[in-house]
Amino acid sequence: MSDDLEINQKTGTSSKSVRLESREIQRILPHRYPFLLIDRVIEMEGYQRAVGIKNVTMNEPYFQGHFPGMPVMPGVLQVEAMAQLAGVLLLSRSGNENKLAVLLSIDEAKFRRSIIPGDQLRIEVDTIKIKARIVQVAAKITVNGEVASEANIKFMLVDKD
User: Fold this and answer.
1) Which of 68, 100, 125, 137 is least crowded, fewest Cβ atoms below 10 Å from its Cβ?
2) Is 31 a catalytic residue?
3) How many domains in the chain?
4) pLDDT one-digit tens code per residue, 5-15
């Protein structure tokens, strides 16, 4: 994992740029191939914000059936990718190492553009509210700067067992 201090030129505030590769993500999340939908985490600002990358290839197993001849990443997997990045953000917090981020609700989900093989997804999550064990995030996926999907997602942090 590499850390770099970045200064926002507009606001003058600083944040740590963190790079987590697949093995480090797998230490945090229980997901494994073919269901691990984040390739890298490129930014984490405390426990408030994270940015991740997913490279979509024709080799994704879901393209065999969704849709043959016109492959499109299913919306539910887009939401899952956003939820997984939120899980990395929430479970990276000290004291949450032995917890799981369990999905409670998905609100205001919108799918604005198809995601196809060759797209690189930039996944962003921002923490909206933390209340005891309940956390809500705003999440979005962009491709080449264009919003592909977005949702508000709520989680409950539960003990692993």
Assistant:
1) 68
2) no
3) 1
4) 443 444 333 45
In single-letter form, the type of residue at position 63 comes to F
Are residues 76 and 134 in contact, defined by beta-carbon separation less than 8 angstroms?
Answer: no
The CATH number of residue 112's host domain is: 3.10.129.10
Q: What is the CA radius of gyration of the chain?
A: 16
| Residue 77 domain boundaries | 2-159
* Residue 113, both tokens: 């553009």
In Å, how far are 8, 47, 69, 139 from 126, measured between CA atoms?
Answer: 17, 9, 35, 6
By the 8 A CB rule, do 1 and 19 touch?
yes
First-to-last alpha carbon distance for the chain, in angstroms, is 28
Q: Which of 66, 93, 122, 133 is an active site residue? A: 66
